[in-house]
Specification:
Helix content: 25-40%
Largest sheet: 7 strands, mixed
Number of strands: 9
Number of domains: 1
Radius of gyration: 17 Å
Bound molecules: 5-O-phosphono-beta-D-ribofuranosylamine
Shape: globular
CATH topology: Rossmann fold
Structural class: alpha/beta
CATH superfamily: Formyl transferase, N-terminal domain
CATH class: Alpha Beta
Strand content: 15-25%
């Protein structure tokens, strides 16, 4: 069973979905630590409620981003983390963290990348006028939402949608697809080759609802 370190800055609903999947046995993993750069993050309360160690690492307590990430890496190592999951973590990840966990940092983004990276992806999608929005789980590299794609789920944009209603429907899909991606990793089925993430065994035993 792999140990997960979750980095979250806010509400933590994706963290909750990951914890729930672990507790339900749908995911052969355990949440080993939750780390937040925001002492007021609701994610910290969620962790505490489930007996998961919750750690606050404030950016302003470190002189540089590298120093800040060294503190995070130390905490992840202390909890013997195998895979780092960004779940609403509102910072760009740098070399220190990426080098400590090569191709072992994942993120979820509320758009079908490479469309609409960065902040307010759902608003960007609505303003652009796309008919299909969605979410993406990807491995993290140094760019903003630019790493190799693991799984994506489409979400149709409906007549009358606003940012709130679209975000809500995308979020429902996020809560399914993130645990699925982590489960694939936990089963040793993800192989990164350049920009492509191959899913080993795909075609023989596809995940339900993954195309
Ligand atoms: C989600 O929409 C996620 O895709 C994005 O930030 C939001 C975090 O929500 N990266 P939550 O904190 O998991 O509820």
């Amino acid at each position: 069973m792999i140990a997960l370190g979750v980095l979250a800055s806010g509400r933590g609903s994706n963290l909750q979905a990951i914890i729930d999947a672990c507790e339900a046995g749908r995911l052969d993993a355990r949440p080993a630590v939750v780390i937040s750069d925001n002492p007021r993050a609701q994610a910290l309360e969620r962790a505490a409620r489930h007996g998961v160690p919750a750690v606050v690492v404030e950016r302003r307590a470190s002189k540089s981003r590298d120093d800040y990430e060294r503190v995070i890496v130390a905490s992840l190592r202390e909890h013997a983390v195998d895979l780092v999951c960004l779940a609403g973590y509102r910072r760009l990840v740098g070399r220190v963290l990426l080098d400590a966990f090569p191709w072992r940092v994942m993120n979820i983004h509320p758009a079908l990348l490479p469309s609409f990276p960065g902040l307010e992806a759902q608003r960007q999608a609505l303003e652009y006028g796309v008919k299909v929005a969605g979410c993406t789980v990807h491995f993290v590299d140094e760019g903003a939402d630019s790493g190799p794609v693991i799984l994506q789920k489409p979400v149709p944009v409906l007549e009358g949608d606003d940012v709130e209603s679209l975000s809500e429907r995308i979020l429902e899909q996020e809560h399914q697809v993130y645990p699925e991606a982590i489960a694939l990793y936990a089963a040793g089925r993800l192989k990164v080759a350049g920009r492509r993430v191959h899913i080993l065994g795909e075609g023989k035993e596809p995940w339900p609802d993954v195309h």
